[in-house]
Design goal:
By secondary structure, this protein is an all-alpha fold. It has a domain of about 60 residues. Strand 1 and strand 2 form a beta hairpin. Helix 4 packs antiparallel against helix 5.
């Protein structure tokens, strides 16, 4: 009887969360023009390019499995993930919302919907989902999260708990809420696991501390980052951390070539480095170049948007947000 009395309020609370938010989460879709996933922070429509044949084929396979087992949590998760990989984030959000109704205590539903709210620039909704997911995993065993887009070695390097904290930290970061961003990324760092997790969370923790004006503390957290770490996937974050330490030069980190795939993550790290080192003009040039490139759904691109919005905001509104 005691166990039942504990579980029931938790279940009711989770069901209320789903009722209050999963339906509200999708009711705005009707206001969006066909094909528009959302709007950038500068007000531009976000439209995804058509998926390639392979990506669409994997979506169809996931859809078939879902239609065969529509109540199965894994089938729902993969249907939503494959939908998101096609660039149709709104449909993915609807699928994960349905998953919440069927599995209100499954943290994965909130983790994945929160991720896709970030993609469409709905940061408050992302935070709400991911904070809820962080409560659902309290006291639960962590587990490796299967990759939808495997790395070169086909070795998954992230975990459910780590991904919840990572995306929660990112959502707060994009709102320039440094205190909560630090809390989430620190929790993600403490999940441990492997060097990929260490370099990715250290990269964001370092940037947060620098934006908070805590340079000495930021430099100390780089002590555990070395050139010979066993990094499989997050090589850009690894190189950025070495750049912050002074072991990789600015020329090396910005060099173009297949052996140095910096992408949006690397470009944002460099732009941000100029900003917190006092060169706002150079930072702005890098941020504007990044947001003029393709790939509006990458985290580096979204972070650049957020920083440009911050730089262009009236001083009174910036002060009010602190």
């Amino acid at each position: 009887m005691m166990r039942r009395s504990i579980v029931l309020p938790v279940l009711l609370s989770a069901c209320f969360f789903v009722f209050a938010h999963s339906h509200a989460a999708t009711r705005d879709d009707a206001a969006l023009p066909d094909g528009v996933q959302g709007y950038s922070l500068s007000g531009e429509a976000l439209v995804s390019p058509p998926p390639n044949r392979e990506t669409f084929g994997k979506l169809e396979a996931a859809r078939t499995e879902y239609e065969r087992n529509p109540a199965d949590a894994d089938a729902i998760i993969w249907y939503g993930r494959r939908m998101a990989y096609t660039g149709d984030y709104r449909s993915a959000i609807r699928i994960f919302s349905e998953g919440m109704e069927k599995h209100p205590l499954d943290a994965r539903m909130y983790r994945h919907r929160g991720h896709r709210y970030i993609s469409v620039r709905e940061f408050d909704r992302a935070i709400e989902d991911l904070e809820h997911a962080s409560k659902l995993i309290e006291g639960k065993e962590n587990r490796i999260e299967p990759d939808g887009l495997p790395n070169a070695l086909n070795i998954p390097v992230s975990t459910l708990h780590g991904n919840i904290w990572y995306h929660l930290g990112l959502a707060y970061y994009l709102k320039h809420d440094w205190t909560n961003a630090w809390r989430a990324f620190q929790a993600g760092f403490e999940t441990g696991g492997n060097d990929d997790n260490r370099v990715s969370t250290t990269h964001w923790r370092y940037m947060i501390l620098r934006r908070m004006g805590k340079r000495g503390e930021a430099e100390r957290i780089l002590d555990d980052i070395t050139a010979n770490m066993n990094v499989i996937e997050n090589t850009v974050y690894h190189r950025l951390c070495l750049f912050y330490k002074g072991e990789v030069s600015l020329a090396e980190i910005t060099a173009e070539g297949s052996d140095n795939p910096t992408g949006a993550a690397g470009a944002y790290g460099v732009a941000n480095w100029f900003f917190y080192n006092g060169d706002a003009a150079q930072a702005r040039r890098h941020l504007e170049a990044l947001t003029a490139s393709p790939g509006w759904d990458s985290f580096g691109y979204i972070a650049a948007e957020a920083d440009l919005a911050f730089l262009e905001a009236p001083a009174s509104s910036v002060e009010a947000s602190r």
